Input
Amino acid sequence: MNKTSYQIVALTFALSLLLVLDGCAREPSSPAGFRLPDGNANTGRETFLYMHCHQCHTVSGDEFPIVAGEAPPYVQLGGPVTKVKTYGELVTAIINPSHKLAPAYAEDVVSEDGESKMPVYNEFMTVQELIDLVAYLQNRYEVVAPPYDYRIYPY
Ligand code: HEC
Output
């Protein structure tokens, strides 16, 4: 082997070692490998209704009766987004609402002392209800290109 081949072999070895070490370095709290089964969107809509999520939420392309009692400001779910609403984001938004507040709203409107105003349902929401809700909501988002102002030459 000439010098260049040795260098290539050494480089390949170093890169593989990096990859292996990277694998070992992953955090125990990493979501890698996490996947719940797929839910049913129609059942999810029913769940949304009987859990009274529509007391605080409107859903793009769907309509729900007004719920009596304290409600607005309504936080809209679904509608145009510039990047895919992932499954992980939706699951997290439901079971850990304070982790990341809905970005489209002023913080003091949707939270109090850093805590989301959304109730935590974890004590009584089943996993089946959770995955059905996510399946229903995920269908309501539509990925669109971000708005862009075209400048018309020569203005
Ligand atoms: C008492 C009012 C209230 C109820 C009831 C409620 N939420 Fe929320 N929800 C909020 C508020 C306020 C936010 C915005 C702050 C945040 O992101 O946690 C929110 C945020 C969300 C988000 C994230 C939206 C985004 O754009 O990031 C999802 C998803 C969601 N709620 C789903 C649900 C589901 C499903 C239910 C029923 C099981 C429910 N919510 C019931 C108040 C409520």
The chain has a mean pLDDT of 87. Residues 48, 51-53, 55-57, 75, 77, 90, 93-94, 97, 101-102, 110, 116-119, 121, 133, 137 surround heme C (CB under 6 Å).
